[in-house]
Amino acid sequence: MPLSPANAFYLMMGLLSFLLMGIDKFKSVRNQWRISEITFMALSLLGGAPGVLAGMLVFRHKIRKPLFYLGVPVIYLFHRVLMTPLLLRILIEAGIGW
């Protein structure tokens, strides 16, 4: 079954966020250049919160920072409760989604 455009968008954002969390953890262990926290928060706000949450758990990365262990779940709930239904409604009314 194909994904709706909204679900495809959230899947892509989640995968990108998860991948970047892994890269950042890899770089942090090696004391290399890092991806900024604001980038992860922006990705979360743009729909990548599930990927950031998964990356936090899988890579045990940024799990001690309140901005992440409190902020990212709040952003995730914001998207699930408000943004996803709104985006789906807009897409359906435009004849793009189903």
Automatic annotation (TrEMBL):
It comes from Anoxynatronum sibiricum. Keywords: Membrane, Transmembrane, Transmembrane helix. Pfam families: DUF1294. The chain crosses the membrane at residues 6-26, 38-61, 67-92. It comes from the Bacteria. This is DUF1294 domain-containing protein.
